[in-house]
Amino acid sequence: MESAAHRLRDDAIAVWREWLVVVHKPRRLAIVKERDEHRKRISRANANIAAGPDFSLALRNNGSIANWGVEYLTPLHGTQGDFIMVAAGFNHWLALRRDGNIACWGANNHGQAPRDGIQGDFVVIAAGDFHSLALQRNGSIACWGCNLDGQAPPDGIQGDFVAIAAGATYSLALRRDGSIVCWGQNSFRQVPPDGIQGDSVAIAAGIAHSLALQRDGSIACWGCNLDGQAPPDGIQGDFVAIAAGANHSMALQRDGNIACWGHNEYGEAPPDGIHGDFVAIAAGDYHSLALQRNGTIACWGDNEYGQAPTPEDDELYDEDDYATLSANFPFMTDVHIL
User: Fold this and answer.
1) What GO molecular function terms would the record report (predicted)?
2) Tens of pLDDT along 89-102?
C-alpha cells in the first residue's frame, strides 16, 4: 500500500514537472517577452519628433528630417537619410540611422556631436545640453561629450537597459525590470544615487527634473519643482508617453489629448492641456510640439526663432513659417524599433 502511494505521489510530481516545462515556462516567457516589448514601444513613442531650446525636428515619411527654428542648427531644406529617431540637445542634435549608426550635427565643442557620427549597433539615442547617449542592442550605453558632472562617462554604462534620457547635465537609464539608474549632476535631487525603484515603462529628463511613466499609466516625478514641473506626489492618469522641457512637463493621454504642467510664461504648458488625436510629444525650453495621428504637427509656446510656428502667427506677423512647415505634412507616425 505504501509503495502504491509513493508511486502515485511520484506520478503526480512527474505530471506537475512536465506541466511546468511544457505549459508554465513557455507561458511565463511569453508574458515576460510581451512586457519587454510593451516597455520598448512605450519608451520610444516620441522617437519621430524632438525639441531643442529654440529648434525643432521631425522625421518625414521617407526617413529624411525636417528642421525648423534657429537657422545655424537647422538646414533650410532639411536633412536627407534613412533615419528612424531624432534627439535634440542644447545646440546639437542626433539622428539614428536604420543601420544602427548615428549622425550628429551642431556644436561639437565638448565632443557631443562628432562630424563623422558614431558607428555602432545602436537602438535608441538621447541628447543633453552638451553630452550624448546611445543605447546599444546589448543593453549597455555609450556616452560622449561633456563629462564635468559625470553625465557622460567615456567608458559608458554597463547594464541591461531598454531606454535612456539625457537631462541638461545628467542622465537616466531604464532597466528591463522597470527600475531606473541615474548619474550626473544632482543639485535638485534629479539624480538619486540609489536610483528609482518601480515598474516604469518610459523616462524623460528636463533641465533639472525627471519623469517616469509607470505601467499603470501614472507618472512619477522628482527633481526641481520650482515651477510645478515635478510634483512630488506625481501625476495620476492614463498616460502613454511623457516629455520634459526646461521647466515644464507634458504627458500624452491614451485618448490622444495632452496634459501639461509647470512653467507656462510663453504658453508652453497650458493648464487645460491640448486637445487632439496625438501620438507623440516633445518639449523644448519654452515651446512644445505634438505629432498628430494624421501626420500633421501642432506647435505652441515661444516662437522667437520660428521653432513653434502656428497659422495664427503666420497671419498676425505676415510670415509663412507654419505654411513652410505644413508643406512637409504628413510626417512619419510609425515608430520603428530596432
Assistant:
1) guanyl-nucleotide exchange factor activity
2) 999 999 999 999 99
| pLDDT > 90? residue 15 | no
Confidence at residue 131, expressed as pLDDT on a 0 to 100 scale:
98
Indicate the average pLDDT of the chain. 92
Angle at 193 between CA 46 and CA 239, to 5 degrees: 30
Per-residue pLDDT, 31: 61
Assign domain 44-326 to a CATH class: mainly beta
Residues with Cβ within 8 Å of residue 92, at least 6 apart in sequence: 73, 104, 105, 106, 107, 108, 112, 113, 127, 130, 132
Domain boundaries, the chain: 44-326
